[in-house]
Write a structure and sequence with these properties.
The chain is an alpha+beta fold. Helices cover 38% and strands 25% of the residues. The protein contains 14 helices and 19 strands. The strands form three sheets. Strands 1, 2, 5, 6, 7, 8, 17 and 18 form an eight-stranded mixed beta sheet that branches. Strands 3, 4, 10, 11, 12, 13, 14 and 15 form an eight-stranded mixed beta sheet that branches. Strand 12 and strand 13 form a beta hairpin. Helix 1 packs parallel to helix 4, helix 1 packs parallel to helix 9 and helix 2 packs across helix 9. The longest helix has 27 residues. The radius of gyration is 21 Å and the shape is globular.
């Protein structure tokens, strides 16, 4: 009998399992994949996520992989570009874009180091219940054979936006947003970067950042309605999108693509109720949005901490299980709601409204406030605070001077 079974061992599941084990709980961590392995991902960690890696004692392991730190960001709107650095989070000034083959293995190993029992290549096929309460899982290891059944006080689904655990428990969804844009990405050698570079263009968005092994990750976004056309000629469509940013296209053509182009459509936004009798959800299994703001891993780290604390409070009797997990849902939603809406708006790839264009013009020569604008996406500047009437007057007043 385990205290917790966590299904999914990537950037939500492994930290949740690790943190629970560090609190003294007996945890089983399962994943159908083996590690190291890759997965579709924007794989950028904003400053608050990096701060959590530091607090968990794992940042040095990421730094040791040679992944370049990203402090400066450029938001090129065509006629001009904004540049700046988001304010720090707990003293952390930089973000990182580590490959998932590297980061997920670091997280998995950290869970094992904390005493978590890890089973790779394990497919969960069903949940076990006692009345309405989930009491465990049933699944198989490689090679078939009889199903294996394991029991736990709580089963945590950390298995992504298409979560099997969420489906099996019937987790309700709310605040849904339709898929607005599809995304494709790959990696290039010998493409120098200024940090993280973002290029909104008509019905397009291009984002580039340095990652491991001297590679540069470049992601392109197209309207969801263009998915079939893009998929039919992905290399040609990618090059056409790059040509909308001549300076970036020149650097890319001077380098060489290192891997195939991969991507996905159907990137809808939703919240799921993240708990019920004997179960909980974390990461993309509980809350998903378009990757255009690259929030997935940072959100997963935050929610892993929130959920581990809530489960520990419930197990220790400091709070009722209902009270602890309801608090987890409330804190998650309060933390993400403004950025969720901003992400959904950006994913539409529509021209910015006039007031936003005026704001960009006012920010053009104001690197400090440009950095604070980047901080609204990084999560180091509250969106309501930045867009408050007082701050808008401060920005436009600064420009007038």
């Amino acid at each position: 009998m385990y205290d917790a079974i966590v299904v999914g061992a990537r950037c939500a599941g492994s930290p949740t399992a690790m943190l629970l084990a560090r609190k003294g709980h007996r945890v089983l961590l399962l994943d159908k994949a083996g590690f190291p392995s890759d997965t579709l991902s924007a794989h950028y960690i904003h400053q608050p996520g990096v701060a959590k890696l530091h607090r968990w004692g794992l940042l040095d392991r990421v730094v040791a992989t040679g992944c370049p730190p990203v402090e400066r960001q450029v938001f090129d709107v065509g006629p001009f570009a904004l540049a700046g650095s988001p304010p720090p989070a707990d003293g952390i000034k930089v973000g990182y874009a580590p490959r998932r083959t590297i980061l997920d293995k670091i997280l998995l190993d950290a869970a094992a180091d904390a005493g978590v029992e890890v089973r790779e290549h394990f497919s969960v096929e069903d949940i076990v219940t006692d009345g309405e309460r989930v009491t465990g899982i049933r699944g198989r290891s490689p090679g078939g054979g009889s199903p294996v059944q394991e029991q736990a006080r709580i089963v945590v689904g950390a298995d992504g936006m298409r979560s099997g655990i969420a489906r099996l428990v019937g987790a309700p969804t709310y605040n849904e947003q339709p898929a607005a844009s599809c995304a494709y990405y790959s990696y290039w050698r010998d493409v120098p970067m200024q940090g993280a570079e973002l290029y909104p263009r008509p019905e397009r968005m291009l984002i580039a950042a340095p990652t491991n092994d001297g590679l540069t990750m470049i992601i392109g976004y197209w309207p969801e309605t263009a998915f079939q056309e893009v998929r039919a000629d992905i290399e040609g469509q990618f090059l056409k999108a790059l040509d909308m940013v001549p300076a970036l296209a020149e650097r890319v053509r001077a380098g060489s693509r290192a891997e195939k182009i991969r991507g996905s459509a159907g990137l809808r936004g939703f919240f799921r109720k993240p708990y019920g009798p004997g179960w909980a959800l974390v990461g993309d299994a509980g809350y998903h949005k378009n990757p255009i703001t690259a929030e997935g891993m940072t959100d997963a780290f935050r929610d892993a901490e929130l959920l581990a604390d809530a489960i520990d409070d419930a197990f220790a009797g400091r709070l009722s299980t209902e009270g602890a997990l309801a608090g987890y849902e409330r804190q998650r939603n309060e933390a993400v709601m403004p950025l969720y809406q901003m992400t959904c708006d950006l994913a539409k790839l529509e021209p910015p409204p006039q007031e936003m264009q005026s704001l960009f013009a006012a920010l053009r020569d104001n690197e400090e406030q440009s950095g604070r604008f980047f901080g609204t996406i990084a999560g180091t500047v509250p969106i309501p605070e930045f867009f408050s009437p007082e701050n808008m007057r401060r920005i436009t007043g600064d420009r007038a001077q």
